[in-house]
Specification:
Two copies of one chain form a homodimer. Chain A has three domains: 1-46; 82-192 and 368-389, ATPase, nucleotide binding domain (Nucleotidyltransferase, domain 5); 204-361, ATPase, nucleotide binding domain (Nucleotidyltransferase, domain 5, 2-Layer Sandwich), CATH 3.30.420.40. In chain A, 44% of the residues lie in helices and 19% in strands. Chain A has helices at residues 7-25, 30-37, 41-53, 124-136, 166-179, 188-199, 258-262, 264-270, 279-290, 294-318, 329-335, 337-347, 350-353, 367-382, 384-389; strands at residues 28-29, 57-60, 74-77, 82-89, 93-100, 104-112, 143-151, 184-187, 208-214, 216-223, 226-227, 322-327, 357-360. Chains A, B: Pfam families: ROK.
Chain lengths: 390, 390
């Protein structure tokens, strides 16, 4: 029941859609844009002229023009001069990157922080420092169109249950203060989903689930091509789905959360490496299982079984086309795929699993970082010419 | 990245949007339409003129015009002469109705079928017979714009696991053959969600979950104002979410499905009424608990606890604004609300439950029937003038 768009709305939408298309697909000819967007040639020409004048794209002759008659100009994102700042706060490392329009990582800074738990202030100064260096290393006339950070939802609980998840926003506010610019925030799971959906394993799939292991478990859901936010923006709290009501107590106060059965501490304990932590420890446990270590094999089988139970529930509830495993689950899933598949086969209907794909994250550990970059680019696509007149 | 709409697309969209607005909100003045749709007065005038000429709406002076200067014409749906056929197949009854534009039930036929299990053919002839009578009782010039049926997903399994859920479509095909017209189908849960979202307890809420008890448990999800379908249209298979992996075997082949803990047989057994079935039996169990019967109280407490575990999972995953209990859960939820709330409080974060509402279905047992009517009206709103030229 929305009002009809004005001509100016339509032009702005078309500019954003064209720019986003170039951002997602890479260099693309005017002819391809004309066909793909269902607009006529002169409209495409006018739109690309506006975006070129604004310094957001450039047009050039295709490299290979042999024997094809008059070639269609190719539109390319000006990646070096139009960029976003992306941050990813992980359990054992902090990352900041300058990501050019088109999704290319132009510069990247990273610091390990093994074994830490999160405090709100922790890492903020370091990330702000990274941001300053990243900005300074850009071309002199380069335009920063936004900044965003992927932050664990678990930070939320620092300030107590009354404001759970608000910690994510507070982290963003602190980072914004330190960096001297607006910083949007999303959870690691939600932005990991956005990253993999934009240019990873879930690209082209309108219905997807992303699961991220990093100490605990976070997740993100793509439904009908867009992130599922829920009523308050808190959807996809997947680690706290109860799968074992008779199981162990979770730090969140509940009992039998998925995270208590498949999270890092449980995996490492069951695999015979109690007291260790972090990605390297998970790597060692998976390696041990691959070498035939019985404890490690048994631990991975058990975790795989619980991983399968939860994935099967999500398949029954959401009917996704693809489930993507990121973070430490990128190591765990391949080692436990048989258990996961077996549980899915027992617990879902054939209709739900017939076309289901299970994949590891294509963007590897950087799915949340790329998702943060996409979030930072959002405003540019809403109104591309707004940015350049500023 | 969709193509820009043409002027003709926009006009068709505006006609559909205006008609749908009148359908949902009831009689509405041209002035309200102008304000609500963000279009100017002359456009609204032209659109209502088209719809009036097509026989879909009529315009009249408001009843109370005292002291308000020149009154704005009121646009009203022609409910008696524009209608849809809606069917609902339940565990213990079959319903067919003629539903007028605007959502009013004009005529309705119902037959009890206590204690039956479903076969594909069962009830089809009876519903087709109802449809013939409903059509014959309409005004001579009345226009039927579509037909749809709410069908249990469980019918699906009649023809074996390889085609689970396809049974829903097959039921629709058989009904279409018998009734001599196209019949769209949806599951009881999905269409119950659509009904409650359109004109029930979930109206105005963009993120909602509907749960329907009728022997087993089915459900529907509304996300961002629209039904969540998933990749293949099979989302919201909520009854088969595993909540108790160490629990009992489900008829679906899995173990510990939500349905095994909160479905009718479990409730009635735990409440001290083993061997009974149907809505009346659930009613008796709930009444017994209200009168202080210890077995019944204990049974409802236990089912309430498991109901709460599953609802809490859905709250964590989907962050809905409202959860609506329909079918027999309309009786069970109020009797077990304390257990449900307690589980939600233990298992979800405050952010997720702060604004959460738990409600029984406003459309009572007819939520799926109203949802079927909405589904049947869909095509009309996509292109209102198409129908009248036929």
């Amino acid at each position: 029941m929305r009002a009809a768009p004005t001509q100016e709305d339509i032009r702005r939408q078309n500019l954003g859609a064209l720019l986003r298309r170039v951002h997602l697909l890479g260099p693309v000819s005017r002819a391809q844009l004309t066909a793909g967007m269902g607009l006529n040639r002169s409209t495409i020409g006018a739109l690309t002229a506006d975006l070129t004048e604004a310094g957001l794209v450039l047009e050039e002759l295709p490299r290979d023009t042999a024997g094809r008659g008059r070639p269609s100009l190719v539109v390319r994102a000006r990646s070096q001069s139009v960029y976003a700042l992306a941050f990813a706060v992980g359990a054992d490392r902090l990352v900041a990157a300058r990501v050019g329009l088109g999704g290319v990582v132009l510069d990247r800074r990273e610091v390990e922080r093994p074994g830490g738990t999160f405090g709100l202030d922790e890492g903020v100064e370091r990330l702000a420092d990274f941001a300053a260096h990243l900005t300074a290393s850009a071309e002199p006339q380069a335009l920063c169109v936004g900044a965003a950070a992927a932050v664990p939802a678990a930070i939320a609980r620092d300030d107590g249950p009354a404001h759970a998840r608000s910690g994510t926003e507070r982290y963003g506010a602190l980072l914004a203060d330190a960096a001297g610019r607006t910083v949007r925030v999303g959870t690691t799971g939600n932005l990991g989903a956005l990253g993999e959906h934009t240019r990873g394993a879930a690209a082209g799939h309108d219905d997807a689930v992303y699961l991220h292991g990093d100490g605990g478990i976070s997740g993100g859901i793509i439904a009908r091509g867009r992130p599922l936010t829920g009523a308050d923006g808190f959807a996809a709290e997947l680690g706290h789905m109860v799968v074992n009501p008779h199981g162990r107590r979770c730090w969140c106060g509940s009992t039998g959360c998925w995270e208590t059965e498949i999270g890092e501490p449980t995996l490492l304990t069951r695999a015979g490496h109690p007291g260790t932590r972090g990605r390297d420890a998970v790597h060692r446990a998976v390696d041990a299982a691959a070498r035939g270590d019985k404890d490690a094999e048994e631990g991975l089988r058990s975790v795989g079984d619980w991983l399968g139970i939860g994935v099967a529930n999500l398949v029954n509830i959401l009917n996704p086309r693809i489930v993507v495993f990121g973070g430490t689950l990128r190591l765990v899933y391949p080692a436990a795929a048989a258990q996961v598949r077996s549980r899915i086969n027992r617990t879902t209907l054939p209709t739900h699993r017939e076309h289901l794909r299970l994949r590891t994250a294509l963007l590897a550990d950087d799915a949340p970082l790329h998702g943060a970059a996409e979030l930072a680019f959002t405003e540019l696509f809403e109104n591309p010419l707004e940015f350049t007149s500023a």
